[in-house]
Amino acid sequence: MIPLVWAALVAATPAPPLVDVAGIIPDALVDLRYATSDNLAHRPVYPAGARCLLLAPVAERLARVAGRLRAEGLRLRLWDCYRPLTVQRELWRLVPHKGLVADPAKGSHHNRGAAVDVAVAAADGGPVALPTGFDDLGRRARLQAVDGVSPEARQNRERLRAAMEAEGFRPNRMEWWHYEAPEARGARVLEVPLAP
Predict the structure, then answer these.
(1) Which residue, 114, 144, 153, 156, is the most exposed by fewest CB within 10 angstroms?
(2) Does residue 171 register a pLDDT over 70?
(3) What is the model's pLDDT at position 180?
(4) Parallel, antiparallel, or unpaired: how do β-strands 170-172 and 115-122 relate?
(5) Interior angle at CA 186, CA 181 and CA 187, nearest 5
(6) 175 in active site
(7) Residue 6: pLDDT above 60?
(8) Angle at alpha carbon of residue 193, lines to 187 and 196, rounded to 5°
(9) pTM for the whole thing?
């Protein structure tokens, strides 16, 4: 009987609000790759008008990261933020390999609004050297990769990493662009619309 009561309480608990990062970091370049074909699925899996959504405390951390990078003449480029569980299932169907894609049975921290895929750009929004593009599954995507990664790209990767870690984000060793916030611990997997 107690498990049924607990399940009812959990189901009745409202989901924590997600906030639109564009309203908190106005100079961030919102470049959601899952709204394009430049991703693992090779087709759009987000709707037109998709927003970069995160839990409010995670968005606030990211705003502080943006401030640190702004002081260095860089801007944030946001490749992915909150990801609906339905999209996670589709990515797992395409690449069912733990370490490359999170198993939707447990959910990704993206599904909790507590992870972000991020890069840096020049102050004017132009490109800078980066180790790889988004969703690259090769060796150069690893956080410590040196072979095939230019010194300028390594420097930009490390500038991003230093700013993210200074605000409490943890990097993913397989994807230099993926960071998780401490708020992921205990957060619920969510299924909310990405478009307004």
Answers:
(1) 144
(2) yes
(3) 97
(4) unpaired
(5) 65
(6) yes
(7) no
(8) 125
(9) 0.90
Q: Is the sign of the CA dihedral 189, 191, 194, 196 positive or negative?
A: negative
The answer to whether the beta carbons of residues 177 and 79 sit under 8 Å apart is yes
Q: Could you give the dihedral angle defined by the CA atoms of residues 130, 131, 135 and 139, in that order, rounded to the nearest 10 degrees?
A: 180
CA distance 164 to 154: 15
Instruction: Give the Cα separation of 44 and 35 in Å (integer).
Output: 5
**All domains in the chain, ordered by first residue:** 24-184 (3.30.1380.10)
> Which residue in this structure is represented by tokens 């992870």?
115
Residue whose token pair is 């599954």: 137
Query: What's residue 159's pLDDT?
Result: 98
Name the active-site residue from 175, 180, 183, 191. Answer: 175
Q: What is the pLDDT of residue 10?
A: 42
Tokens 């699925």 correspond to what residue?
Answer: 41
